[in-house]
Amino acid sequence: MPLFTLKDKQIAAVKSTQFGAEGIQERTDLQAALRDNINVISPDTMVLSEEFSGWTEGARRIDLLGIDKQANLVVIELKCDEIGAHMELQSLRYAAMVSTLTFKRAIEIHQQYLDKRGIAKDAEAEILGFIGWSDPQEEQFPTDVRIVLASANFSKELTTAVMWLNERDLDIRCVRLQPYKLGDELLLDIEQIIPLPEAEEYQVRIREQAEAQRAAARSSRDNTQYEFLGQVYNKYQMSST
């Protein structure tokens, strides 16, 4: 969505730009800025770790790993390019990998992150205070894993895949980060495009309804078996004999 200035009864468009053209680097600039202001792309979230790689295979790293108020882990992937190529596939892999994190391990990960940044805080106290727990509840952690994709833009293939996955009970959000140049200042338009904020509650209800219908369809299947002339058949095989 374009931006405009309104001055002296005149409306003028603000020129859009690209991160690369402005010398903004993905990790050292954009990621560092969002790390310390994570709520602009993922409200009610606390960063647990940056460039997290807690598995032994490969050198893949989660840009930002967070936790939200409901004790969901949040996998946050960032891209400075114009299409967000393969972000959804990469983030799904990461979500599966962190889904087995224990609360104890989450504390260790966050303490390492705090120590590395020179922040003199106790990780366990920070996490417990953020999610509102009085004591660790290992059996309830994590509640689930959410995904946030933030990019300058998203391809049609990616957005189609994300919407299809969300219909099947995943929680993936796409947040567009569009830079604009106004004089010497760099402006950043941050917009959640999937799911649309005003339709989010409705989409959750639709998802729940669809899952209930799928569950009902599965439970209503007649799997009764019949024996006829020494052979075993199901209902559909019997009707065609």
Key attributes of the depicted protein:
241 residues; alpha+beta; seven-stranded mixed β-sheet; two-stranded antiparallel ribbon; 11 strands
Order of helices and strands: EEEHEEEHHHEHEEHEEH
Give the termini distance in whole angstroms. 62 Å
User: Which runs of at least 5 residues are low in confidence (pLDDT < 50)?
Assistant: none
**Proportion of residues in β-strands:** 25-35%
The helix/strand class is alpha+beta
Q: What is the tally of beta strands?
A: 11
Describe the biggest sheet?
Answer: 7 strands, mixed
Number of helices: 7
- Average per-residue pLDDT, rounded, comes to 86
* Principal-axes shape call: globular
Helix content: 25-40%
What is the CA-atom radius of gyration, in angstroms?
A: 23 Å
List the helices and strands and how they pair.
Layout: E1 4-7, E2 10-13, E3 15-16, H1 26-35, E4 45-52, E5 62-68, E6 73-79, H2 87-98, H3 103-116, H4 123-131, E7 145-151, H5 156-167, E8 172-182, E9 185-194, H6 200-220, E10 225-228, E11 231-234, H7 235-239
Parallel strand pairs: 6-7, 7-8
Antiparallel strand pairs: 1-2, 3-8, 4-5, 5-6, 8-9, 10-11
Task: Provide a descriptive summary of the structure in words.
It is a single chain. This protein has 241 residues and is of the alpha+beta class. Helices cover 34% and strands 28% of the residues. The protein has 7 helices and 11 strands. The protein has helices at 26-35, 87-98, 103-116, 123-131, 156-167, 200-220, 235-239; strands at residues 4-7, 10-13, 15-16, 45-52, 62-68, 73-79, 145-151, 172-182, 185-194, 225-228, 231-234. Strands 3, 4, 5, 6, 7, 8 and 9 form a 7-stranded mixed beta sheet that branches. A two-stranded antiparallel sheet has the order 1-2. A two-stranded antiparallel ribbon has the order 10-11. Strand 8 (172-182) and strand 9 (185-194) form a beta hairpin. The N and C termini lie far apart (62 Å). 22% of the residues are buried. The mean pLDDT is 86.
